[in-house]
Design a protein that fits this description.
This protein is α/β, with parallel strands linked by helices and 195 residues long. The protein has one domain (7-163): TIM Barrel (Alpha-Beta Barrel). 50% of the residues lie in helices and 10% in strands. The protein contains nine helices and five strands. The protein has helices spanning 16-24, 42-50, 60-66, 85-99, 108-112, 115-123, 127-145, 159-179, 190-193; strands at 7-10, 29-33, 71-75, 103-105, 150-151. Strands 1-2-3-4-5 form a five-stranded parallel β-sheet. β3 (71-75), α4 (85-99) and β4 form a beta-alpha-beta unit. α6 (115-123) packs antiparallel against α7 and α7 (127-145) runs parallel beside α8. The two termini are 34 Å apart. The mean pLDDT is 95.
């Protein structure tokens, strides 16, 4: 079971009790959160991962390594539209490129915490069913196109909305790869199962 479990998450608020529990567990995979409360920029996200800050003397990746995490998944810490969403999307490429680790996150949080959308959903009775789903799913698709390795789309009830859209983008990216002379190797890829 420990080989399939993913701890959520190693972040700047991790305490001694959680560190001890992780060291004693056999869990080898964890989400490592790149949330920097004092600096939400790409540089700030890299700083919290590599050096620490906001109360931590070590970078979150070093903390992960110290507790036995050998398969980290970096969550870029999505911030709302108007509060740093651009840095969130840029950090997908920057962190993945610099650290060579799988990168993703809960990109739907960019839209769910968007002040204008929250007000709009309250003011228009149809907004929750008509306007909200494309925005919610769209944030994930933008991150996917930018190279995100995983999407925390939550809640599970959204699976029927999110999966077909993500599969569509995977097919487009697979066709792009073919155009560039590359091959999709995974038999489970949507380009091999749904086209």
């Amino acid at each position: 079971m420990e080989k399939r479990a993913i701890h959520n998450s190693i972040n700047a608020s991790i305490g001694a009790e959680e560190i001890k529990a992780l060291k004693e567990s056999k869990v080898t995979s964890a989400i490592v959160l790149a949330f920097n409360a004092t600096n939400p920029s790409v540089e700030g996200k890299l700083e919290i991962l590599e050096k620490g800050g906001t109360g931590q003397t070590k970078g979150m990746l070093d903390v992960a390594k110290d507790v036995g995490i050998t398969r980290p998944l970096v969550d870029v810490a999505a911030t709302p539209l108007g509060a740093g969403s651009g840095a969130t999307i840029r950090s997908v490429l920057a962190i993945k490129g610099k650290l060579g680790l799988p990168v993703g996150g809960g990109f739907h949080n960019m839209a769910s915490a968007w002040d204008w959308m929250k007000k709009y959903k309250k003011s228009d009775p149809d907004a929750k069913t008509e306007s909200w789903p494309p925005v919610d799913i769209g944030t994930n698709l933008v991150a996917q196109i930018m190279g995100a390795n995983f999407l925390l789309y939550g809640p599970i009830e959204n699976v029927k909305k999110v999966f077909p859209a993500v599969a569509m983008v995977d097919i487009m990216l697979g066709e792009t790869a073919k155009d560039l002379g590359l091959s999709v190797l995974a038999d489970s890829h949507p380009i091999k199962k749904l086209v």
